[in-house]
Structure formats: C-alpha cells, structure tokens
Design goal:
The complex is a heterodimer of chains A (298) and B (459). In chain A, α2 runs antiparallel to α6 and α5 runs antiparallel to α6. Chain A has 7 helices and 8 strands; from the N terminus they run αααββββββαββααα. Chain A has 298 residues and is mostly helical. By secondary structure, chain B is an alpha+beta fold. Chain B has 2 domains: 103 residues, no CATH class; 334 residues, no CATH class. Chain B has 9 helices and 11 strands. Chain B has a 4-stranded antiparallel beta sheet with strand order 5-6-7-8. A 3-stranded antiparallel beta sheet of chain B has the order 9-10-11, covered by helices on one side. Chain B has a two-stranded antiparallel sheet with strand order 1-4. The interface between A and B is large, with 60 and 71 residues.
Chain lengths: 298, 459
C-alpha cells in the first residue's frame, strides 16, 4: 500500500503563503526605505558598522560647523588688523614727514595731533569685539584688553592675557584661533602703542622724530608679521573644510554600501514573491475545488 | 445442524456491522476538520464458529473495536518540537520588542543622542561664553539622559509584563494538567476500543500539545492508556489521575515571580515552551542589556564629571559634577540626571579665564576616549545594538527551523490520522454494498423460510 499523504493540505498552504508574504513584505520595506538594514536583526554587524559610521559622520559635520563658526571671527580679526596696518602706514609717513627739519613747531604739533588720532584709532581696533567678545584679549574676552593709563610709558596698559584657544578641525588635529593683543600690539619686539607714544612726544618736542619713526616701523613690521597668523589659519581652515567634506561624502557612500538596498535585486525579489503568491493561490484554488469521490456517489 | 434462522441471524449481524461501520465513517466525515481528531477505523471480526459434528459453521460478523489511527511516537516528537516552537515564538516576539528600543534606523536612537551630546561641547568650544551654545549643551545632555531613560524604562516595562505573564502561564499549565489528569481517569474507566475512548485520547493529545506550547513537557506511557507528564528536568506535572500544580511566588532576591513545584524553585530548570522563553528574556536577556546600558551611562557620566571638575565655569570657579554621580549597582541608565541647570556652570575653561575653551574641547574629546567598558561610547553602543540584533536574528532562524519541523511532523501526523474524504467515500460505498447484499441475503432466506412454512401448511 502506498504511503498515505496528509489529506489536509491547508496547513502547508498557509505556512507557504506566510513565507511568501514575508518575503514580499521584506522586499517592500526595503524598497520603501531604500535600506537593506531596517532593524538590527537584518544584519547585526552591519547595523553596528552603520552606527559607528553615523557617529563619525556626526563628528565630521560638527568639525565642519566648528570651522564655519570660527571663520567669521578670524576674518573680523584679519580685517581689523588690516585697518590697523593702513593706519600705521599713515603714521609712519607722518613720522617721515615730521623728520623733515624744515617743519615749524606748529606744523609738528599738528602732525603730533594726527598721530595721536591714529593712536586712538588703533586703540579702538585693538579693542575690537565680535558678538561681545574682545578678540584680541587672549581668553579674557569679556573686557576691553587695552585701557588708557597715563602712568604707563605707552599711555595704555594691556589687561588681557596671552592665552590661546584651539578648536578641533578633525580627530587629533586642532588649530589656534586667536592671537592676543600682547602678541600683536604690545609685542616686546615692537610695541605699537609705545612707539606711537614715542612719536607723539617726539613730534611735540621736535626732537628724536627719526628715531621714533624707526621704532614705529619696527613695531609695524612685527605686527604685519604676526598678522600672517590669521591668513595662514584661514587657509588651514579652508583646506580642512574641503578635506572634511570629502570625508563626509566618503562616509555617506560607505553607509549606503553597508545599508543601502540593492534596488535591482529587491525589485526582482518582489516580483518573484508576487509570482510565487499567484502560483500558490492558483494551485490552492485548484486543489480546493477538486471533486472528491463523494461528488460521484449516486 | 444448520438452520435457516441461523442464516438469518448471520445476515442480521452483517447488517448491524455495516450499519455501525457506516456510522464510524459518518463520524470521520463529520470530524474531517476537527483539530486533533484521529480518524477512526472499524475493525470487523468473525464471530466464533459453531461446531456441528465435523462441520464448522460461521456465525456472522461482529464489529470488534473502533480504533483511532494515531502514532504516539510521532505525537511525542511533535510535542518536543512544539516546545521549541513555543519557546522561539515567544523569544522572537520579546526580542523584537527589545530591538525596537534600540533601532538605529529611526535615527533618533541612543547613538544619535550620544553624538549630539559630545558635539554640543565641540560647538561650545567655538565660542565658550555664548549662552545659547551653553544652553545647547544642557539640552543635548537632557536628551541623552532621556534616551537612556527611555530604553531602560522600556526594558523595565517589558520585564514587568513578562513577569505578569509568568503568573498567567503557570495558571494555564495548572489548568491543563488538571484536565489531563481528569482525562487519565476517564480513559481508564472507558472500555478499550470504543469510540468515546478514542475521543478522550484525542482530547488528551490536544491538551498535551497545548501544554507543550508553554513548558517543556515529557510524556511517559504509564500503561493502561494513562500517561505521566514531567518537565524535561523531571519535575512531576501529572502522575496517573493526580496533577501537581506549579506555583508562582515572588523571589525576594529579584522581586520577580519564580516558578515553584512542591516548595522548591524550579524556574531555572524550565528550558522550553513559552514559559522557558519568558523566563529567559526576563532573567537573562533583559538584565544583561540593562547592565550594559548602565555601564555605558555610568561610563559617560563619570568621565564627563571628572573632566568638568578639571575645568572652570563661566565665573572662574572650579567645575563640579555635570551629571548626578551614578550610584553603584544597577540603575545608572534609568536614573541618569543632569546635575546642573545653570548653563554658566559648564566648565568650558581650562585656566579659569572666561574665554578659554580648552576644557570644552577636552569634554568633546571624550567621545573618542575609551570611557565605557574599554570602548568609546559610540563603539559600545554599536556593540550593544549588534548584540540585540544578533540575538534576535538567531532566535528568528531557530524559530523558522522549529516551524518547519513542526509543519513536517504535522504533515506526518496528518498522513496517519487525518481524514481523507475520498477514502471515507469509498468505505461508505463498500459498507453500503455489503449492507445491500446482506439485506438481499436476508430476503432470500426469508423466501426460503416462507417456502418451508408453506410446505408445512399444504393440505
């Protein structure tokens, strides 16, 4: 006697239908999200890589934001220094002019007044603030770094500090983002305010103008030297930014490699599942409508 | 000596037997779709012959027994696999709920909160005195704490509901074992080979299968159609006509309901069925995840506190605790709280001056330091998600395997016990034909009897 088969096939049918429907759902989910990994169990190690990739991408985004946020500060500092430089150029030419022995004392007085005006202008520049932050005060950014002080030989005193802030440009790489007034205007190698005061006094007294002018030129060249810091840093930030946007692109293409759905494959799977469903339903319909022996009983 | 009346009786026995067989067939057809029904087969038997001199005369037919067609070994195997199926069904169900808590696909998970928290320090470093950026750090920290709380309390809630389901499942087990014990008693009382005996056996098989969904049960044939049921570790559930109730009792050490049998805790011995899965999720899976989550939360909190203390706040004072320091033991994730509400207390400065950002950079850099179980927070979180994912995937694979096996065994069981309508129709025709023939035989013998009577009455 041949092996008896299970006369009730609907269980098998339901199980098969379930499997095919599951495949269909999975394919639809992948198509809808465009992702191969829709929950960690779809690919546990892929899901973990995806998270680490996401953490890196978030960090890279933040580094880019860091750069965008400090760029305006640096640019403001650079342009403030550029005005200081042109004001100083003017002061130096006034000094050269004053060194001319044909000038009368009253003419020298008026030159001294002009230089004094320039000194005030530069004092204003040294006390530049961006969004309430005094950018040449080191890290004492809440107060103007230069205050008038008649007792001091330079006429001002520096109340900031020489501390420097660094921001991170990428993991492990950072850049200084400020330079203190003590480096720029009160540098021991060339004190701008001291030299200006010296020039004013020299013009007022009519003695030692050439020496004072030389001292100012010296301080001027120190300032222009130091100022290159901003240009260099801005350059560095630009480089970092393009490096970071490259990295960001790479990370996101990595993420789609890890989690992206292979659309061609998924579409094929979907149509296969649809075909299988149709075949299953058709065959089950046929089987169910098959007559039994009872149909032939008289 | 033979007699016409004996022949008549034989024909009647055929009529009766065929009629009874048709009844069995009719019952089979009626129960074609009854779950757990085993098709019944009428077993015909010759009645004892009559010895007359040297001759033996048959005395007709008898419907000896009605046998249920079932394969007990197959049923036992089906029960075993049903236990695995019950276990993995519940396990997958529970793990999928857990997985949803960790799902990074939604982009708002714990991982994103961790990234955002450390990046907020990075952002602060670009302008350490900006009150908006300081507030931003506190908001990101609050989000981080609530992400931890969300997952931890989600796990806690699930643990509680699993705990309640232990009580329900224990009472289901008790109800099933008491019904099985009662059936053991009834089966013993019913004479073998009757239709009602087969029905009772079917009922008991069904109940044991339901029990197998819940707990790993072993069926031992105790003779006389009675069965003894124990768990696979030998805890008695039904012996003869007596069932042994399990009890759910609170274990003071854990605060959860444990399963007790005759006064001793048998929770850890329950391996399969939905109860096995419930206990595994409640006592192993969830506590392991909670403890990892605690490691991550307390790692972050401790490192951030230490670094914040190394710096200076906006007022130039030394920094304090950023998070409320996590208490030792479990609960670090659930109870993670930001200690400061005043944004100026964030210690961004490394030297006490207001505009210094050194400590903010150092705080941001903690994202890349191995501060959680020897890994960076992002790596640790990724590992946690991978673990949840692979546990779920593994359970799903095993569930599919168990489903397939159960389906195959059910097919085999159906092949033995299922009702085939074609078969029943052919049996019916067979019995009808035999009935017709017996009736015809009866009427011929009747005619013969008439003839004999007429002979006697002839003038």
């Amino acid at each position: 006697m041949p092996l008896r088969v299970n006369p009730n096939i609907s269980n098998d049918f339901f199980a098969e239908l379930q499997i095919v429907r599951q495949q269909q759902n999975q394919a639809l989910e992948q198509l809808a999200s465009g992702r191969r990994i829709n929950s960690p169990s779809d690919d546990p190690s892929g899901a973990a890589s995806l998270l680490e990739n996401q953490a890196q991408a978030d960090q890279v985004d933040q580094f880019q934001k860091n750069i965008q946020d400090v760029q305006p500060q640096l640019q403001a500092a650079d342009s403030a220094l550029s005005s200081a430089v042109s004001a100083l150029t003017q002061a130096i030419s006034l000094g050269v002019e004053g060194g001319n022995s044909t000038y009368s004392p009253s003419e020298l007085q008026s030159l001294a007044q002009q230089v004094s005006g320039i000194r005030d202008e530069i004092l204003g520049i040294a006390n530049t603030s961006v969004q309430g932050q005094f950018i040449f005060a080191g890290t004492l950014t809440n107060a103007a770094p230069y205050v008038l002080n008649p007792a001091s030989p330079s006429g001002v005193s520096y109340v900031g500090n020489s501390n420097v802030n660094y921001i991170e440009l990428s993991n492990g790489q950072s850049a200084a983002v400020n330079m203190s007034g003590s480096q720029l205007f009160s540098n021991p190698a060339g004190d701008i305010f001291g030299a200006l005061q010296q020039l004013i006094t020299a013009l007022q007294t009519g003695t030692g103008v050439p020496a004072a002018t030389t001292a100012l030129s010296q301080a001027y060249s120190v300032l222009t030297n130091q100022r290159t810091f901003y240009g260099t840093t801005l350059n560095e930030l630009n480089n970092s930014e393009s490096f970071l946007s490259n990295e960001s692109v790479q990370l996101s293409s990595q993420a789609s490699l890890i989690a992206g759905a292979d659309l061609a494959k998924v579409t094929t799977q979907l149509s296969q599942a649809e075909t299988a469903t149709t075949a299953l339903l058709t065959s089950q319909g046929k089987v169910l409508s098959q007559p039994t022996l009872f149909d032939y009983l008289p | 000596m033979s007699s016409l009346f004996a022949a008549m009786n034989i024909a009647v026995s055929g009529l009766l037997a065929d009629q009874a067989a048709a009844e069995v067939t009719s019952n089979n057809v009626a129960n074609a779709n009854t779950p757990g029904y085993s098709r019944e087969v009428p077993v015909f038997d010759e009645t004892p012959p009559l010895q007359v001199g040297n001759l033996q005369f048959g005395t007709g037919v008898d419907l000896a027994t009605i046998e249920g067609d079932r394969d007990n070994i197959l049923n036992n195997r089906l029960n075993q696999e049903t236990q695995q199926q019950g276990k993995y069904d519940s396990l997958v169900n529970g793990l999928q709920q857990i997985q949803a808590l960790f799902n990074p696909a939604q982009g708002t998970g714990l991982g994103a909160s961790i990234d955002a928290f450390f990046n907020s320090f990075q952002q602060l470093s670009t302008n350490p005195t900006d009150p908006t950026l300081r507030q931003g750090v506190l908001i990101a920290a609050g989000n981080l704490a609530s992400s931890f709380q969300q997952i931890a309390s989600g796990l806690g809630t699930q643990q509680q509901s699993l705990d309640q389901s232990v009580v329900q499942q224990v009472s289901q087990i008790n109800s099933l074992t008491s019904q099985i014990a009662a059936l053991n008693e009834q089966v013993a009382a019913v004479p073998a080979g009757t239709q009602s005996g087969s029905t009772l056996l079917d009922q008991r098989t069904q109940l044991i299968q339901q029990l197998s969904q819940i707990i790993d049960v072993q069926t031992i044939d105790a003779g006389n159609n009675s069965v003894t049921l124990t768990t696979s570790q030998g805890v008695a559930l039904v012996v003869g006509t007596q069932n042994f109730n399990l009890q759910a009792q609170v274990n003071p050490a854990t605060g959860f309901q444990d399963v007790f049998a005759q006064g001793s805790d048998v929770s850890s011995s329950i391996q399969a069925g939905s109860l096995g899965a419930t206990l595994q999720l409640r006592d192993q899976e969830i506590p392991a995840l909670l403890s990892k989550l605690d490691t991550l939360a307390s790692g972050i909190a401790t490192a951030v506190n230490t670094q914040n203390q190394a710096g200076f706040d906006l007022n130039g004072a030394a920094g304090g605790n950023f998070f409320v320091p996590p208490a030792p033991g479990p609960g670090a994730a659930l109870n993670l709280t930001v200690a400061i509400t005043d944004p100026s207390l964030i210690a961004a400065s490394s030297d006490g001056t207001i505009g210094s950002n050194g400590n903010a950079v150092a705080l941001a850099d903690l994202a890349n330091k191995n501060i959680a179980g020897g890994l960076t927070p992002a790596q640790f979180n990724a590992g946690l998600v991978a673990q949840v994912g692979s546990d779920t995937a593994q359970a799903q694979t095993q569930q599919q395997g168990a489903d397939l096996l159960v389906q195959q065994l059910q097919d085999q069981q159906g092949a033995v016990s299922g009702v085939s309508l074609d078969e029943e129709a052919s049996h019916l025709i067979q019995y009808q034909t035999a009935f017709d023939a017996a009736a015809r035989v009866f009427s011929v013998i009747d005619t013969l009897t008439q003839t004999v009577i007429n002979m006697a009455g002839a003038p």
